[in-house]
Amino acid sequence: MAVKTVPGRFAFDRDGILILPAATLIIAALALPAFRDPANLANVVRQAGVLGILAIGQTFVISAGMLDLSIGAITGLVVVLSSALLNGDAALTLPVVALMVAVGAVIGMLNGVLLNTLRLHPLILTFGMLSVLQGAIFSFTDKSVGRTSAPLAMLANGDIAGVPWSALLLLVLAIGGHLLLAHTRFGYHLMAAGGNPESARRAGINIERIRFAVFVISGVTAALAGLLLAGRLGTGYPLAGNGLELDAIVAVVLGGTLLSGGRGSIWRSLAGVLMLAVLSNTLNLMNVSAFVQMFVKGLVVIGAILLNQPRRASS
Amino acid sequence: MSVAATQATRLQLSHFGRYAIFFVLAVIYVAGLAVSPAFAEPNYILNILRQITPVGIAAVGVTFVMILGGIDLSVGAVISLTSVLTATVMAGDVANLAPAILLACAVGLCIGLINGIIVAFSRASPFILTLGMGVAVVGLTQMLTGGTAKGIVSPGFREFFNFRVGGLLPNLAIAFLLLVAIGLFIEKATIFGRQLFLVGTNRATAVLSGLAVRRVTIAAYAISGLFGALAGIALLARSGVSSTVAGQGLEFQVLAAVVLGGTTFEGGRGGIAGTVAGVLVLAIAFNLVNIAGLPYQMQLLVMGFIIILASALYGQISDLAD
User: Fold this and answer.
1) Spelled out in words, what is the top-level CATH class assigned to the domain B3-321?
2) How close, in Å, is residue A116 to chain B by CA atoms?
3) Residue A88 is part of which domain span?
C-alpha cells in the first residue's frame, strides 16, 4: 500500500503534489518584486516557524494513522500561560519554557491514555479536548494577559547574520524529527502501525505505546510552537492558537502525506508549510483583505483534502 | 452463562444504550429541581426550550448526517452566514421577510449540497472537509458584511417568534417542535430514513444491495445545511440583532448534543429523539453551571468533557452488546 514507492526517487503519485508549493514559490518570486526582497523572505520564514513546528508534530501523528485537533488549543494555552507567568521577566524564561513543555507533554499523555483506554476515535477525542482547552483558556482570561520575555521575543523576531533564529530552531527540530521518524526503530514501527495496525500488532509492535508517544510528541511540539508564537505576539492573546490545527493538517496534506497513515516525511510537510506561508505573504503583499484570505484558506483546505486521496485500487 | 442468558444481557445493554439519554435527562432534571425550585416552573422550562431552539434545530439536521456515518462541522459557520444574510436582506422592511428567509434557506441548502456532493464522490474525510468548509463560509460571511454586523430585522419578525401562546409557549419553541416532528417523520416513516441507517451501519453492504448511497449521502448533507439555515433564522428571531459571529463555536454544542443523544461518530445508530434529549441535557447542564456561579466560559469545558465521555460510554456499550 504505502511503502511500495522507492524512497529518494521522484514518483508522481507520491511527490506530484509537491509541484504545488514549488509553483506557488516560483510564481510569487516572478510576479512580485516585493516578495523577492530578502527582508520579506526572512519574514516569510519567521512566519512559517510556528506552523512548521506544529506540522512536524502532526507529521508524526498522521503517519501513525491518527489526527490531533487539540494542538491549536495547546498552542493558545501556552501563549496565554507563558505570557502570564513571565510578565516580561527574562530571568524566568528557562523555568517557564520547561514548565510549558511539561504542560504540552501532559496534555499529549492525556490524549494518548484516553485514546488507548477508551478506544475513542482520535478525531472525536481531540475535538473534545480542543473544547476543554478552549474552555480552560477563556476561563483563565478573555483578553490579552502578561508579556513575553526578551529571550523569547529575540528567538521569534531576531536573527543572526541575516538568518532568523526561528528558522534555525525549526531546522534543528526538523532534523531531529526526520532522524527519529525515518532512521530509528521507533520510526519504522510508527509507519508500520499507521499503515496497517493489525499486521503491525501481529508482528509484535506495541501499537498502544506508539500512539501514546505520537500524542506526546504532538503536545510537546505544540507547546514549543506556543512559546515561539508568544514571542512573536509579545503578549498572551487568548485566540492566538485558533484554527492552527487545521493549518498544520493542511500543510502535512499538501506535502503529500495521506491521512490514512503509514507514510510521511518531515521535509515534505515543511514544503507544505512553506506553500501556506508564501501564499499568505503573497496575498498580504497584494493587499488582499483578511476576510478574503480566510475564504481562500477554506478553499485550500477543501482542495488539499480532495487531492489527498488514496487511490481506489490500493484498498 | 447460557446462550439465552447472554443474549438477554446483550439485549438489555443495547436497550440501555438506546434509552440511556432519557434516563440521564430525568436524573439531571431532578438534580436541577434539587438545586433550584425554578426548574418546577413551566415558564422556566419553556424559556430553556426557547434558548435551545437554534442549537436544537441545527442538531436535528446534523443527526441525519451522523446516522449516515458522516459529520458536519460547517454548521456553526452556516448559522452565522444565514443569520446575518437574513437580517441584511430584510433591511427593516416587512415586504422583504419572505424573500430573506427563502434566500437564507437556499444558501444553507447549497452549502449542504456542496458538502454532500464532495463527500459522496470523493473519499475525503468529512471531518476535515466540513471544517474547511466552515472556514471558507466564515470568510465569505466577513466578505459579505465587511466584518461588522449588518442588517435590521423586519418589524414584527422578532415579536412574532417571541410571542407566547397562552402567555406560556413561545412561537419559537413551537417552530422547534414542528421541525423535530418533521425530522422524526423523515427518520421513522420514510424510505430515506431507513436507508440512512443502512448506509451508516455498513456502507459496503448498502452499495452491494443496490442502494443509491451517493443520493442518500447528498440528501443528508443537504438537510443538514437547510436545518443550519433554519437555525440561523431562529437565532436571529430569538435575539432580533444581527451579528457576523452569531454561530461561532455552536458546532461544538451541536456535536455534543448529537453524540450525547446516542448518535455516534461511527454511524448507524441513534436518532433525533435522542438528539432532542441531548440538547435538553446540555441546556440544563449549562443552566446548572450558571446557577453554580461558574463563569460562562466553563460551558466549553463541560461540553468537551461531554463529547469525550459520551462517545466513550456509547462505544463501551456497543462493544459489550455485540
Assistant:
1) mainly alpha
2) 11
3) 48-307
